[in-house]
């Protein structure tokens, strides 16, 4: 980022994140940068299922996502700021969303829209990722099946709130969170299994054989 | 009670014992055919005057939960001119390799339908030009999801499934031939070729 003077971390390991301490200058810069970022988020729509219909409704005239500076859908990940996964994510699409996420430049955020994207939803099956947070980092989860446009907009506003609290003094929030080259996984295997445990009604789903 | 389709009687006359049985279910005629003669029967149904089942609506399969009950491969045929439907079934013993003859040579539309049955049930089609998975990714190795013995959540744990999915190359699934009609242009029917060669989106020869 142009606004980010090279604040190379002195020693991230020990929790010291910046060579500078916050002062009047940096907090004003933060305010300016965050204000600009939060109000001109370019969404990368990753619509895979029914939730995408509701996402389209959110973007259309009646609910009008452009009030949040989000009317410019970025169908190229390289110009996008926020990935909105609207719909269930099958395992076959897991490498695709991962690649799109890796192609998006910093700063970037992700919204997981709907029960399926957040948890696998009603699809506790062989084909479905049980929550996209096992594949990419997620900032805001929007519940619902599908969430109403108001729900998604509330999620967007929460994201804006989160962005306005960021500081470029903490450069670690801009670190790329890549997949572990040894395991090929984004999260540790144990945590993926834990997150994917059946819950709610899917506990009663019949397991064949 | 609905009467059986005239095709069933004609089939029995032409193929004798290869026609195992026929029935009418919910008004739809169903004919069970022996696997060995199935391809002949389907070819006969396609070309014989008075049958002319020129449209293959679907190929699918059914795996029943009852133990020992055979897996059925189902062909749903339609004669567009006669406006008649016919369902042909082949019963396969699940204890033995599931192999049937491909009908790709009769109906080109069988290409992806047979791939889907292969992908979901593990039935192989001899003579299919390109039998690989179509819905699941090509390196998927957990088995055949629509078989009854397949557990709902798959065989592996979620971490392993995620690892294998992330290891897949998302661009490897599509060969150039799948994405372009240029190569297939000469194989299109003449009227379609004619239409495609006009207009601004026309095919440049
Ligand atoms: S959460 Fe509901 S609406 Fe959204 S993709 Fe899943 S099933 Fe469809």
Describe the overall structure:
The complex is a heterodimer of chains A (209) and B (205). Chain A has 209 residues and is α/β, with parallel strands linked by helices. Chain A contains six helices and four strands. A four-stranded parallel beta sheet of chain A has the order 1-2-3-4. In chain A, helix 1 (24-38) runs antiparallel to helix 5 (149-164) and helix 2 (50-59) crosses helix 5 (149-164). The model of chain A has no long low-confidence stretch (mean pLDDT 84). Chain B has 205 residues and is an alpha/beta fold. Chain B folds into two domains: 6-153, NADH:ubiquinone oxidoreductase Nqo5 subunit (Beta Polymerase, domain 2, 2-Layer Sandwich); 169-205, no CATH class. In chain B, 26% of the residues lie in helices and 22% in strands. Chain B has a five-stranded mixed beta sheet with strand order 1-2-5-4-3. In chain B, strands 6-7 form a two-stranded parallel ribbon. At the A-B interface, helix 3 and helix 6 of A face helix 4 of B. The complex binds iron/sulfur cluster (SF4). Iron/sulfur cluster (SF4) binds at residues 49-51, 87-88, 114-116, 121, 145-146 of chain A. Residues 49-51, 87-88, 114-116, 121, 145-146 of chain A line the site of iron/sulfur cluster (SF4).
Q: Looking at CATH, which topology of chain A would you report?
A: Rossmann fold
Radius of gyration of chain A: 18 Å
Can you count the helices of chain B? 6
Q: Biggest interface and its residues per chain? A: A-B, 32 and 25 residues
Low-confidence stretches of chain A: none
> Would you identify the CATH architecture of the largest domain in chain B?
2-Layer Sandwich
Main beta sheet of chain B? 5 strands, mixed
Instruction: Determine the number of helices of chain A (DSSP H or I, runs of at least 4 residues).
Output: 6
Q: Enter the CATH topology name of the largest domain in chain B.
A: Beta Polymerase, domain 2
Q: Tell me about the largest β-sheet of chain A.
A: 4 strands, parallel
What's the N-to-C terminus distance of chain A? 54 Å
The name of the CATH architecture of chain A is 3-Layer(aba) Sandwich
Shape of chain B: flat
Helix percentage range of chain B: 25-40%
**Which strand order spans the largest sheet of chain B, edge to edge or round the barrel?**
1-2-5-4-3
The CATH first-level class of chain A comes to Alpha Beta
